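QUALITY CONTROL LOG
STEP: pairwise intake check
CHECKER ROLE: data steward
CRITERIA: each record must contain a sequence immediately followed by its structure tokens, with no blank fields

ENTRY 1 OF 2
RESULT FIELD BELOW
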Amino acid sequence: MQRYVAYFRVSTSTQGRSGLGLAAQQSKVQEFLQADDELIAEFVEVQSGKLDARVELWKAIGHAKKHSAKLLIAKLDRFSRKVSFIASIMEQGIGLVVADMPHATDFQLHIFAALAQEERRLISDRTRSALAEAKKRGVRLGPHATVLAVLHREDAMHRAIGLEPILRPMLIKGLSLSAIARNLNALGICGLRGGKFHAETVKAIVNRLSERC
């Protein structure tokens, strides 16, 4: 039997829009738990993922240490996208388990965190550059401005390019789009908005890569 302490983080500004709110995270954790596992406590943090001062997290870690349990989170990107932060938690001497990636090793968690951190930095840099160029051209900036649609397309393209090294071997092997989607989900890789991959989303990525050629 394995004992777990669950930790959930939600952001009040994005919880509803992201589809990764508290209920979804709790559901993911329940799907992960086996019949003989014991969830001894749950801690919920309402705070932006950009901030590292997590009061409830340290309570969860302390509780896990006290009861010889592992810290269980639903998704890595709901926890943090900073490699240094995730590394500091792993150094606390408790096991960190991600329900969405149950077989991931500590090394793999570092890799996924590094990829997410770099992706966030690149998106931020591209957004600032695109907005600055649009402003120079006199484009009206706002929630419905054309420039936002352009940014979304650019983000999707960069996401596709980032996935190409993983997709290419599967395509060469002749795997179906559904099989590729299942493999991506099994690896714990999240879609553009944090969702699961399906045949249609894989097809869209392949089409974007074809447009680039």
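ENTRY 2 OF 2
RESULT FIELD BELOW
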Amino acid sequence: MKVLIIEDDSIYVEVLEVLLKEMNCELIGHTGDSSEAFRLIRATKPDLILLDIHLRGRWNGIEIATRIQEQKIPISIIFITSLSDDVTFENAKETKPFAYITKPFDRISVKRTIALALDQNRTKILKSSNIWKEKEYDNQGNSFFIKAGHRLHKIHIPSIYYIEVNNRYSSIVLEDRLLSVKTSLKELAEKLPSACFFKVNKSCMVNIDRIDNIDVNNNLIIIGDYKISLSRRNKKDLLKVLE
């Protein structure tokens, strides 16, 4: 069974990795960043998530669990967190997790909890690899406004081919036009569903749904008439997401 760790404390990540190895579980990844967590969930389709509540990024662990619950994705969740107050626990309980474990934890208890969760989850099947992409569109909307010059432009997210930064400006390449804005790549990324947009080199991210093909030998992404450089560093992760 596949297990994903979403935890930003490296010490606890190492402890959990050891426990999973002892149990012969398949650890498919770990991250402490909530935006990266959505990409990993979409890419790896875990059976179980060991989830901290306090994370880096836009969302906390409870918000991640809420999205999983709302979409009825068959993934078991075990909260493993240092937050033990009643309010946090009640909020977490609303997401219907399998368990809520507070740090510091007992190794044997955690192993037994994981074993029970995995056993319960054996008959569940992930409904769709696109379900998180659809959910993020539902939450964020299909468009946003951005200032370019003296105007506010409405950007339809599905129409974006890719975004590339050059010095202080970013070029938003759309299916019908190119828009240059004085906005960083990081700021633009926050407006987009992370499950659909992937950083392919240090200055560019592409809309995965717009990719026509990938020239693996020459490390090029083809979107319409555009050819975008794919760094060796990001190549492996992108191909894994597209599988």
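INTAKE CHECK: passed for both entries
DESCRIPTIVE NOTE, ENTRY 2: The helical segments are 10-22, 34-44, 61-70, 86-93, 107-120, 131-140, 185-189, 232-242.
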